[in-house]
């Protein structure tokens, strides 16, 4: 997490976030218009990694509900801080997830977007059934280039993983998530995501979420049907923390 102090965002920071949000909503609307889509069909999730809880609270006050995090340790602390301030948000876990972190992640996340292998499905299902009254919403993270070392399920395993999730009482399969691989033309990546999402939706009618698109490529993602975009730097500014320098794309 950044070294900025906890507490409330300064007046200047809140004004900056309000302006960034206004500009972002206008840009999303323009991308939707260009794609012939209704902006109400695209949910904005603000990826708050490296940024303080105070920024989350300020954006929540401006109407943002969904926030994304990719590291459990940082997310758990931030979620506790936001909850303690009385602010209600929905946390989307979007990072690589180890089985031993499932207990913690299930305790604060409304959705886990990075489900990409059988052992993780088993562990998440067990935690969700023990901690929750209702199933946990999950997305299957698709590996666009099938280089699964960087996270995501390879296309050959899409149907089997979807079937496994559908058989879990603790999980509700809501759709897919993907990150365009480095060096790929984003349109080509998101076209592949849309094609695989449609196949999965044929097995699971409630799996209609396509989480695709980040600050650099959200417009292309919208043009290929994304229903959720995950924006970090466009709203919150650049991340100075070097731990994050190599993993956003
Ligand atoms: C960091 C991150 C984002 C947001 O990236 P930006 O380029 O800052 O918009 C989106 N999705 C995932 C999975 C991330 O890790």
TrEMBL record:
UniProt-listed PROSITE patterns: UPF0001
Q: Which family is this protein grouped under?
A: Belongs to the pyridoxal phosphate-binding protein YggS/PROSC family.
> N6-(pyridoxal phosphate)lysine is carried by which residues?
49
Q: Which Pfam families match?
A: Ala_racemase_N
Q: Which HAMAP family match?
A: PLP_homeostasis
**GO function terms (MF aspect):** pyridoxal phosphate binding
Q: Could you read off the lineage of the organism from its UniProt record?
A: Bacteria, Bacillati, Actinomycetota, Actinomycetes, Glycomycetales
Protein name, as recorded:
Pyridoxal phosphate homeostasis protein
């Amino acid at each position: 997490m950044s070294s900025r102090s906890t507490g409330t965002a300064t007046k200047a920071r809140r004004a900056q976030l309000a302006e960034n949000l206004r500009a972002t909503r206008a840009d999303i609307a323009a991308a939707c218009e260009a794609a012939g889509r209704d902006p109400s069909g695209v949910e904005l999730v603000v990826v708050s990694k490296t940024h303080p809880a105070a920024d989350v609270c300020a954006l929540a006050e401006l109407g943002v509900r969904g926030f994304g995090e990719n590291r459990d340790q940082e997310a758990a602390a931030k979620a506790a801080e936001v909850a303690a301030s009385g602010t209600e948000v929905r946390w989307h876990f979007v990072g690589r997830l180890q089985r031993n972190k499932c207990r913690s992640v299930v305790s604060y996340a409304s959705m886990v977007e990075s489900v990409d292998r059988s052992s993780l499905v088993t562990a998440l299902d067990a935690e969700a059934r023990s901690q929750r009254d209702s199933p946990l919403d999950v997305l299957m993270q698709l590996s666009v280039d099938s280089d699964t070392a960087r996270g995501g399920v390879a296309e050959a395993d899409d149907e089997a993983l979807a079937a496994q999730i559908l058989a879990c009482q603790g999980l509700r399969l809501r759709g897919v998530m993907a990150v365009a691989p480095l060096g790929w033309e984003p349109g080509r990546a998101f076209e592949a995501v849309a094609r695989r999402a449609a196949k999965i939706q044929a097995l699971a009618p409630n799996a209609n979420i396509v989480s695709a698109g980040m600050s650099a490529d959200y417009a292309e993602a919208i043009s290929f049907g994304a229903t959720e975009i995950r924006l970090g730097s466009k709203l919150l500014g650049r991340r100075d923390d070097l731990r994050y320098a190599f993993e956003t794309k």
